[in-house]
Design goal:
alpha+beta, 3 domains, 4-stranded antiparallel β-sheet, 17 helices, 18 strands, binds fe (ii) ion
Length: 481
């Protein structure tokens, strides 16, 4: 809702304050440059967090110049315990060791070093700039001692400001902070949804959503179970009967192979609907992936951020019985028969995680591009195996109609090109007209790592496998709305 308004309006804030985090955030994410007036700011500071409530007025730039809108934004900024410095020194052999030793002898670890020639040179003296991030806070004894020694050695020091990026989870438990805002079934279902007018269906969905929302990442395998009704099982059986024979003919080898494991070890069967709990336990064992139940739509950023931690957000409700072979939104048939099976393949799970890692702290524009890549691979990907076109995308696998269409000679097939698919248009309501044909999952993983490395982000991310958390190498501030 808020994003829509941002793109539709120019904001004018009272009391110009360009250093205000919200101003920076809006400039960074929305390219809104003329932020001049903020009407009301209430800020509560704690040690590491600044929680702010902003209320401000805006005026429309397009249709109605005099109209005034009021918004309330809950936000917080979070700063890393790091210091960013610019060190300038004469460019001589051994300069790197010279300052690195000073930090080391004072017990200050460096997380990031980048050098470039200084902008201003003379014939006699050439200097070099080192951009350095330290794992220490400004004002701490160790860092202050190191800075003093550096100054004594004639090294010039500038303290740099933190870059501000959109908030992102740093560990799995932070995922508890996302996916909590869920619309009720009445709000979720649009008027063209098959269950829109079915009060019983809407009530049932709300019941399942309430159960899903009991889940807590602190007990990640303890997924609440759903007792599915006979009516829901009938929908499952109807789709199973259509899809499974098509899988045998057209799904990629990895899907077929893992489907056998899901039947034997997870309990996939025509007769009963599997539980997220069992899928998650199996995937945890196979590829350290988990399925987290969620009650409704997540933003693209939240969903992709989850993948960074090998967490797939899954619904627990099923489509409406009136049209069992169609759903306008993800449901358990799409999540289980479309998505879950391939997450047992390590290269595929790695590929998905790389998309997620690239999305952490990325600009809205880059998140959208990564969303496109997700769409044309994980949702609607095709591949070539033994000279035949095969399917691995969940959006295709969960639609009998699209399975037949995708392997016909009607759609347009493109060679696998992440840069092209990042900007390629698609429809979320119709069958796809274009597909990208993938190489192996291992090759896709290499390509998406390269794509992620080339994104313009002011920090790098490392995934700590032991603790399921990410570590970053630069001093940044995150901002959450
Ligand atoms: Fe999906």
């Amino acid at each position: 809702m808020l994003r829509k308004n941002f793109s539709n309006f120019n904001f004018n804030f009272y009391n110009q304050n360009k250093n205000n985090p919200i101003s920076k955030y809006l400039r960074y994410n929305y390219n809104i440059k003329n932020i001049t007036n903020i009407t009301k700011i209430k800020i509560n500071k704690t040690n590491k967090f600044t929680k702010s409530t902003f209320a401000f007025s805006s005026s429309s730039s397009s249709k109605d110049q005099n109209r005034s809108e009021h918004f309330q934004i809950q936000s917080h900024t979070q700063t890393e315990d790091k210091a960013s410095l610019l060190l300038t020194m004469e460019n001589k052999a051994g300069v790197l060791a010279k300052f690195a030793n000073i930090f080391a002898s004072n017990g200050v670890n460096l997380s990031y070093i980048n050098s470039r020639p200084s902008k201003f040179l003379t014939k006699e003296k050439r200097c070099v700039d080192f951009y350095v991030d330290c794992e220490a806070t400004l004002g701490s004894n160790n860092l202050e001692k190191a800075l003093e020694e550096l100054k004594e050695k004639g090294i010039s020091i500038d303290v740099l400001n933190s870059e501000i990026v959109p908030w992102f989870p740093k560990n799995k438990l932070d995922l508890n902070e996302i996916g909590r805002v869920v619309l009720s079934a009445g709000e979720q279902l649009s008027s063209d949804h098959p269950g829109f007018k079915d009060e019983v269906y809407r009530k049932r969905r709300e019941e399942i959503v309430t159960i899903s929302n009991q889940y807590d990442m602190r007990d990640e395998l303890n997924v609440p179970t759903i007792t599915y009704t006979e009516e829901e099982k009938l929908v499952w059986k109807t789709v199973w009967d259509k899809l499974i024979p098509l899988f045998k003919k057209h799904a990629c080898e990895e899907v077929k192979e893992n489907m056998d494991h899901f039947i034997k070890e997870v309990g996939f069967t025509r007769e009963d609907i599997p539980q997220v709990k069992d899928i998650s336990a199996y995937l945890k064992k196979e590829t350290n992936t988990i399925f987290r139940p969620v009650g409704g739509f997540l933003s693209q950023r939240e969903f992709l951020n989850g993948l960074a931690f090998r967490v797939f957000h899954s619904t627990q409700y099923i489509r409406h019985k009136s049209v069992p072979l169609y759903t306008p939104e993800p449901d358990i048939i799409h999540e289980f028969l479309g998505h879950s099976i391939l997450f047992a393949n390590k290269d595929f799970a790695d590929f998905s995680q790389e998309i997620g890692l690239a999305s952490l702290g990325a600009s809205d524009e880059d998140v959208e591009k990564l969303g496109n890549i997700y769409w044309f691979t994980i949702e609607f990907g095709l591949c070539q195996q033994n000279g035949e076109t095969k399917i691995y995308g969940a959006g295709i696998l969960s639609s009998p109609k699209e399975i037949e269409w995708s392997i016909s000679d009607k759609p347009k097939l493109h060679p696998f090109d992440l840069n092209k698919m990042a900007k390629f248009p698609y429809s979320i309501t119709d069958i796809q007209t274009d597909y990208f044909v993938a190489p192996s999952f291992a090759e896709m993983k290499k390509l998406v790592i390269k794509y992620g490395d080339e994104l313009k982000k002011p920090f790098n991310v490392s995934y700590n496998i032991s603790d399921d958390c990410v570590e970053i190498d630069r001093k940044i501030k995150t901002f959450k709305i």
